[in-house]
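Recall the central idea of this unit: under ordinary conditions, the amino acid sequence of a chain determines the structure it adopts. In this exercise we apply that idea directly, starting from the sequence alone.
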Amino acid sequence: MAREGNLEAPTRHAIDWKNPDFYNEELLTKELERVFEICHGCRRCFNLCEAFPKLFDLIDETHDVELHSVDKKHYGQVVDHCYLCDMCYMTKCPYVPPHEWALDFPHLMLRAKAVKFKQGHTKLRDKILTSTDMMGSFLGIPIISQISNAVNKIKPIRQINEKLLGISADAILPEFHSNNLRKRENNFNHISSSPIPTDQTTGKVALFVTCYGNRNEPEMAEDLMKVFEYNGIPVKLTPKEKCCGMPKLEVGDLESVKESKEFNIPILSKLIDEGFDIVAPIPSCALMFKQELPLLFPNDPEVAKVQQKMFDPFEYLILRHKAGLLKTDFKNSLGKVSYHVPCHLRVQNIGLKTKEMLQLIPNTQVDVIERCSGHDGTYAVRAETHQASMKIAKHVVNKVKSFDPDYYGSDCPMAGHQIENGLKNGKQPLHPFSLLCIAYGLREK
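Accordingly, the structure predicted from this sequence is:
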């Protein structure tokens, strides 16, 4: 008999995406039926995202309330609402491996997205939105960035764009900076002292700044570098980078993921050989190197090397703190802080390191919110899913409202803006590194 529930820690299997059967639509449909049937009998994940309510609604609307009565052409609606947050796998599902039923709902949805992409059914808009390097290069041109940022604040034009391009008029779109982080890097007075290693860290860091940290919110990355260097950790940017590949993963474009991997991994591997640890400021980007690339390329030793040396920045700081190497001479308290934990940070299974760091600040009360913001990078931006994303964010927004904090924010800046969009009170989020800079006295309140 199949055991009800799973008492062991979840494990992940490699993604066999090079196998022709991976793209076999008949085999995919058979696996979707198997998994959907189990989900229908369990329904434990009904409150995580819209993928599960959509599945259950499709079943409940049939004459006999059974999966076999659902038209298979509607399965794609479930797939389209999954944005690979991984929360069902990590926090809810009792049937993940090593359970004999071996459910991996997110990676099954990834397979379905990959089949859709290979068949040419992915929308052009989604291909463009996930081409972050291309968009950043174009929209980062000085005059174009000024025009784009201004136009994105004009509601009538946004409404036209929604009809023409399918980009929600109500979503907060990221700004693009022509004066990106790479152009600002020379303004930093990098610490020249020798790094102090610990058992788990070398004490010097290469920052994989990410396309978002470079072009969309360079101030966030600047604040990260200020905090690290204030704590005696020399930081330099990687010589160059491409997008980590997470946006392309989320639309099933696995060949583009491979291209990004083949560009980034040799650069990061060389830095590791030179004694650097790698830090990525965006949780999704760190997760890409810690989990997804190792599962897509399980036999690549260079990928495994980077996996072992890729750190969340707060994970890194707490490791230094445990070794007695973190400064706690905070100049300012922060009062009440609403801190949202991104899904892709929770998936890393490192604990609440950002919370630990913020709680070191005297007279600072941190209210932790461990629920999805519903952003996902593109899910909140697409016209057809924006309202669903705001529905998912409602719990987070209500928690912030009820706590009435002095500051709020998330490790994921896009999640922070999703909360801002729900609050609609004119108060902008601050990234935890910006909060640390305030506490250390490295920037104005």
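Strands lie at 205-207, 235-237, 277-279, 310-311, 335-340, 364-369, 407-410.
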